[in-house]
Input
Amino acid sequence: MEHSAVTLAPVCQGLKALAERLIEIVGIVQHTDALLGTFKFFDSLQDSSAFFELLPSEAAVLDRLKQQVEDLSRIVRVELNPIVNAYYRIDLQPFLDYDVCKHLQSFQVVSADMLRETLNAFMETGGEEERADLELLLKVGAELDGLLKVPAYGRRPQNGPRHGLLEETALLRVVVFGSVEVVKMLLQVGAGLEACREVVGDLGEERALHIACREGRPELAEILVDGGAEVNAVTNLGLTPLYYAAQRGHAGIVKFLLTRDADLHA
Output
């Protein structure tokens, strides 16, 4: 059965019932707060603004409840997303009727700078809000393969600079960081596997697979190869992913690459 007004009506009824139940829970908390506020003690506080620590048993209860509320908030968002996605559609026909296609074509994708900032925020925190921000940018369209000049970081590559600038895409940045989750997210929306990382004035044309092999990230190497990365791609110095893995002593990656037809003599 396809989604329609007929199927949407009971969903809305269910959401209203759920909201009413959540409001009841909020009422319980508010009632408890009001009730406790009526208690009077002989040693009433002289300074109501003073800070006092909770008793251990009560602190434990409040911490558990706070965590459960946060967990519930995440669960509700995750569970409701499929329902929203099933019904939410943007109808462009009114725009077509009024001949405004040329205006739609002027819309710009999310810039590479903004995508990088959002990626960094999520990879550094792993927070749900940061994840939601990243997912939104990827959905609306981001400049996935835009090269950004950024300060060099991390270990010095073979024959690479100790300082200077790098030019890299979002995927290259994420592979350096080592986030399997975000690499998968970027590949799902079409990030370029063969985009090259440039070190200004030095070693260049490193691809994501080169970096994964040098940094010793076997899971990422496998994901990239399975996604279509060129196993025998070379840098401007003629170095292959196999060379990087062997030079760093990553035996597991070497064995994997050989099973995927990596050229021993390249």
Observations:
- Residues 140 and 248 are 39 Å apart (CA to CA).
